[in-house]
Amino acid sequence: MAVIIGFTGLFVALMALWFASEALKEVRNRNQMLQKAQTSQLSSALEKNNKAVNDLNERMKTLANQVRDLQEARAVSQETLAKLEKSKPRQNRDTVAAEPSQAVAKSAQADSKVA
After folding, report:
1. Is residue 83 within 8 Å of 95, Cβ to Cβ?
2. Which residues, 6 or more positions from 88, have their beta carbon under 8 angstroms from its beta carbon?
3. Mind listing the pLDDT tens digit for each residue in 54-109?
4. Which residues contact 98 (CB under 8 A, 6 or more apart)?
């Protein structure tokens, strides 16, 4: 009788192990499915963010080039203005350097002298 009870106990223990392993397989499968779903969502969001960052980098490079071009054009304009100011007659330089209201008065005086 002890042998039968021993075999029955061993059978019950093996069945418990089998049920536990099946339950563990189910839990692992569910976890893997959840992991895959979350990973795919995160990877798609990461791809979108990477694309946005790359687009912003390209835009920043374009803007930096435009700023550099504008600075170069400004420097050329300032050089040209300096050359023009050096080549102007003395009377015109005084008119340009004065305030607008004074410039109008001085130009009127110059016009009266010419007439």
Report:
1. no
2. 96
3. 999 999 999 999 999 999 999 999 999 999 988 876 665 555 555 555 555 555 56
4. 106
CA–CA distance, 65 with 44 (Å, rounded to integer): 32
Distance CA 13, CA 19 (A): 10
Residue-range definition of the domain harbouring residue 83:
2-92
**Is residue 103 included in any domain, yes or no?**
no
Any domain includes 107 = no
Query: Does residue 45 fall inside a structural domain?
Result: yes
How many domains, in total, are found in the chain?
Answer: 1
| 3-state DSSP percent of the chain in helix, strand and coil, to 5 | 95, 0, 5
Of 95, 112, 113, the closest CA to residue 104 belongs to 95
111 within domain boundaries: no
Q: Which two tokens stand for residue 30?
A: 């569910």
Residue 1: DSSP 8-state = -
pTM for the structure as a whole: 0.47
